[in-house]
Amino acid sequence: MFLPQLDDWAAIDSRDRALSIEPGTPILIDPGGRVDAWPAYFLRRSKVGFLAEESKRAYVKDYRLFFTFLREREKCWQHADYEDVDDCESWRRRSPDNPRRIGGNKWAWCAYRPRVAGPVPHRR
To answer: Record's superkingdom (predicted)?
Structure first.
């Protein structure tokens, strides 16, 4: 094989099937190159897992943006709370520092806002 590191990936399809991971199931990879087990499980087994592929991609994009927002604050998703969600909303919708602001309708459909109970623990 061209890259010996890829030998471990040779059986990825059979491993995915054994874990009930459907083709097209999104994953999020952290800056260290690891797949975090809880978001991967959430994306596979929650309501998100039953959405159409394009909808899954949209949800994962929203989560990725939220997790990146948290990382910029040197915070991990496991320690996120509703204040972080509110701060992210402010940044996504109103901050002049965000060149790609979104409107309220888009925010209402963002994955992490209505599903903060998903991968982000309840903390008030």
So the answer is: Bacteria
